[in-house]
Write a structure and sequence with these properties.
The complex is a heterodimer of chains A (103) and B (678).
Chain A (H helix, E strand, L loop, with lengths): L4 H21 L3 H25 L6 H31 L13
Helix pairs in contact in A: 1-2, 2-3
Chain B lengths: L1 H10 L4 E2 L2 H24 L8 H25 L7 E11 L2 E9 L1 H24 L6 H20 L3 H19 L6 H32 L4 H13 L5 H18 L8 H4 L5 H10 L4 H8 L1 H4 L3 H22 L5 H21 L3 H28 L17 H15 L5 H19 L4 H26 L18 H22 L6 H17 L11 H24 L11 H5 L5 H9 L4 H47 L6 H23 L2
Parallel strand pairs in B: 1-2
Antiparallel strand pairs in B: 2-3
Helix pairs in contact in B: 2-3, 2-5, 3-4, 3-5, 4-5, 4-11, 4-16, 4-20, 5-6, 6-7, 7-9, 9-12, 9-14, 11-16, 14-15, 14-19, 15-16, 15-18, 15-19, 16-17, 16-18, 16-20, 16-21, 17-19, 17-20, 18-19, 18-20, 18-22, 19-22
Classes of the chains: A mainly alpha (103), B mainly alpha (678).
């Protein structure tokens, strides 16, 4: 356990950057969902780190992190369900094929 | 309601409020024809061959109510000297601008009601016979009822805006009825011509109403007539403005009453069925202009200049139309030009301030011209829809009732005593002569009036001679089938012949102290005082007697010449051709051609408005397409092009959007970190 907040925040930023890159670069819808999870976890890490180094926050930081996890789980469920529904229609998981909303 | 009581009190005299019975009757008078119109339209097709079962009883009921009101107004005097008014409902409440649906029933309205409802009813009855072979006669009766409603609204309305609405309604019914046989191209063109020509006059009328509103601040007759003299006396209304208002209102009258130069529509309106010509284009609607000027007499009396112009235009129309009537071959067109000419007489009378003779002539003319038109319809019916008088002749013995009634009409219009036309025409001529005393140069108006009287007698006897007397020129195939019309047609002829004989004597005798004068004196008293032309007493054995002798001899001369040329009884006219006859008169052939071609007014209008106006319209259309449309379409093109470019960023790919969000986030973060926090 490091004694520096910077280390945690650098890790969180790195994870968030990886997640963002994955979301923007991956064509596969499942991989994009995974990237979103990565971003959410990066944020969670930052929150918990802030909570650790700010005593006045007490348990609040952990509570927020738990909320984020719950929402992330719900989001992942709905997201996967949508991906499956689209996959059944389009027979492909690749998002750049889902362009019929363009016009 | 209390409105009028105040206005009346203000003027010292004025209309009283109507009692509930009178209110109900006046409302019914308009409501019944309107209901008849609505029912005829809704049920018309289902009534089969008898669509008149709604329309005709409705008009007979209207006539009975009207006669009761006339009796109450003119004979009992139940509504006082100045008539009654009432407000049915608030029509246009728009802040300061407030117009009610109010009605004015006075002696002038009553006199108009006699003409409108009596002739209207007889024409309805006549139409049963005349239109019996027409497949869509339910439409005809529906339109006739609509016309009756509009015309009654016109004469009963108590303010200028309501008159204007009725004015347009009669115009509409006239349009519908002229074009009743719309499959005939000439009828379709004629009704458009009538409508458009009337629009020209209506623009003036509308502007006149607006001018009244801005200067006087009200449109109610009773208020306008008290406020206008006050404003003129107070110097608020200058003579130029006053003349402007009068002439604008007169423009409307010119359109509706077909005065030069807006006279071109009336002869073409004869394309409509003959009962329509009799009712609308001879006896009632075309009189609306005369009625408007007479009704507005306190306004017109304030502008002697405008009145003088009206007199000159009336006299000019009278002689112009009479000269055209001399040579026309179509029996209905002769009568149409005769109507124009007689309307010119009425405006001449109004212009010289002879308000009562003008209305008197309106009444008598309504009856005998209605009779003549219905008679011509009966003739046309008898010779199987032939209107060319060169293909008639010798009909007197075959259609006796028609011949006799038309003879009465002819003598009446020619002005031979004691028939109706003599009294009214003589009064107009007499007053015009006396007008010359005030304005020396305008003895010419009297001379024109005399010449027209002679011409009227001539062309009417020409019509009689060519139609009824001498040898028959009817198509040999039609000849054996000539028959008198059914009783529904001859009965109205007989019923109209009675007033054509007697109404002049009944209303116009004794001269100078006649019944009609007593009736209308209260209405026109104010205008007469304003003009300040107190008329000298009638001298039957002085100047008036001499005028009567001159007028009657001129009329007789006209008839004698026409009888010699065109025949009387079994005797044929002279067998001279038009060519040899006209060559003996200086400029004869040229004058004949000009008259026959209606002084080329239609050609002039064609050149001015169709050809030249067409060029203007064409260039306007080019300007419109190139410049106006160019700007509008250009704007659209630019927007579309820009949209087309920007549209590309809308890819539909979720990752592109996410990239945009990410970049936006980064930019905002940088701004927050390096700009805002510093």
């Amino acid at each position: 356990m490091s004694q520096s907040l910077d280390a945690y925040l650098l890790l969180a930023a790195g994870l968030f950057a990886i997640g963002t890159f994955g979301f923007l670069a991956k064509r596969n819808a499942i991989a994009m969902l995974m990237s979103i999870e990565l971003m959410l976890n990066a944020v969670n890490l930052a929150i918990v780190a802030f909570a650790l180094f700010t005593p006045s926050l007490g348990a609040q930081g952990s509570v927020i992190a738990l909320f984020v996890m719950a929402v992330a789980a719900a989001e992942a469920t709905v997201g996967l369900a949508i991906v499956i529904a689209i996959y059944r229609n389009r027979r492909t998981p690749l998002v750049d094929e889902y362009a019929s909303m363009r016009e | 309601m209390s409105f009028f009581a105040e206005a009346g009190g203000h003027a010292g005299h004025g209309p009283e409020l109507a009692d509930p019975t009178a209110q109900l009757l006046i409302t019914l008078l308009m409501a019944i024809p309107l209901a008849g119109f609505a029912l005829s339209v809704i049920l018309g097709r289902r009534l089969g061959s008898r669509p008149w079962v709604i329309a005709v009883p409705a008009i007979i009921a209207t006539w009975l109510i009207a006669m009761f009101l006339v009796w109450q107004t003119l004979f009992v005097g139940a509504y006082g000297e100045y008539g009654i008014t009432f407000t049915l409902y608030e029509w246009i409440p728009a802040g300061q601008f407030r117009v009610d649906a109010n009605f004015l029933m006075d002696n002038l309205t009553a006199v108009m009601l006699i003409v409108v409802t009596t002739i209207g009813m007889l024409v309805h009855v006549y139409s049963i016979g005349y239109m019996s072979h027409d497949p869509s006669k339910w439409r005809f009766f529906a339109y006739l009822n609509l016309f009756m409603f509009s015309m009654l609204l016109l004469v009963l309305a108590g303010n200028y805006l309501l008159v204007f609405a009725a004015w347009e309604l009669v115009g509409l019914s006239s349009y519908l009825l002229i074009g009743f046989w719309y499959h005939k191209r000439s009828a379709a063109l004629a009704n458009k011509k009538a409508f458009i020509t009337n629009r020209v006059g209506d623009v003036g009328f509308a502007l006149g109403i607006m001018a009244l509103w801005t200067t006087v601040g009200t449109l109610n007759f009773t208020e306008v007539f008290t406020l206008i003299p006050e404003k003129v006396a107070g110097g608020e209304l200058g003579p130029v403005l006053m003349a402007g208002i009068c002439l604008l209102l007169f423009m409307g009258a010119m359109g509706k009453s077909a005065q030069f130069p807006l006279h071109v529509w009336l002869p073409d309106a004869m394309e409509g069925p003959t009962p329509v010509s009799a009712l609308i284009h001879a006896a009632t609607m075309v009189n609306a202009g005369v009625y408007l000027v007479a009704r507005s007499s306190p306004v017109f009396a304030q502008s002697a200049g405008a009145l003088l112009l009206i007199a000159c235009l009336g006299a000019f129309t009278a002689i112009l139309a009479a000269s055209i009537a001399l040579t026309q071959k179509d029996i209905k067109r002769v009568l149409a030009y005769s109507t124009l000419s007689q309307l010119g007489y009425m405006f001449l009378a109004l212009g010289v301030g002879a308000w009562i003779p003008a209305i008197f002539h309106l009444v008598t003319h309504g009856f005998f011209k209605g009779l003549l038109f219905l008679g011509s319809g009966s003739v046309i019916h008898a010779v199987h829809e032939e209107q060319d008088m060169d293909r008639m002749g010798g009909l007197a013995g075959k259609i006796r009732i028609t011949h006799l009634t038309m003879l009465i009409g002819t003598i009446a219009i020619a002005g031979i005593p004691p028939l109706a036309g003599f009294f009214s025409k003589d009064e107009i001529l007499g007053e015009t002569f006396k007008f010359g005393v005030y304005e020396q140069a305008f003895y010419v108006l009297f001379v024109v009036g005399m010449i027209v009287a002679g011409m009227t007698a001539f062309y009417m006897w020409r019509l009689m001679g060519k139609t009824f007397y001498g040898k028959s020129r009817v198509d040999p195939h039609v000849e054996p089938k000539i028959h008198e019309s059914p009783w529904t047609m001859t009965l109205p002829l007989i019923l109209l012949a009675i007033p054509s004989i007697g109404i002049g004597l009944a209303l116009g005798w004794p001269l100078g102290d006649s019944t009609i004068k007593h009736w209308l004196e209260p209405v026109f008293h104010e205008a007469e005082v304003t003009l300040g032309r107190e008329l000298p007493k009638v001298q039957l054995f002085g100047i008036d007697g001499i005028l009567i002798v001159i007028a009657v001899s001129v009329a007789t001369l006209g008839i004698v010449i026409a009888a010699a040329l065109f025949g009387i009884g079994r005797k044929d006219g002279r067998s001279e051709t038009v060519r040899s006859l006209t060559q003996r008169i200086p400029f004869g052939p040229a004058l004949y051609r000009a008259s026959f071609n209606r002084w080329y007014f239609d050609d002039l209008n064609h050149l001015l408005f169709v050809r030249f106006g067409g060029v203007v319209a064409e260039s306007a259309a080019i300007f419109d397409r190139a410049v106006i449309d160019g700007i509008v379409n250009g704007t659209a093109k630019v927007t579309q092009g820009a949209g087309d470019r920007i549209r590309r960023i809308q890819t539909g790919k979720v990752q592109n959007y996410a990239l945009g969000i990410a970049i936006g986030l980064i930019v905002i973060s940088i701004v927050l970190l390096f700009v805002v926090t510093r």
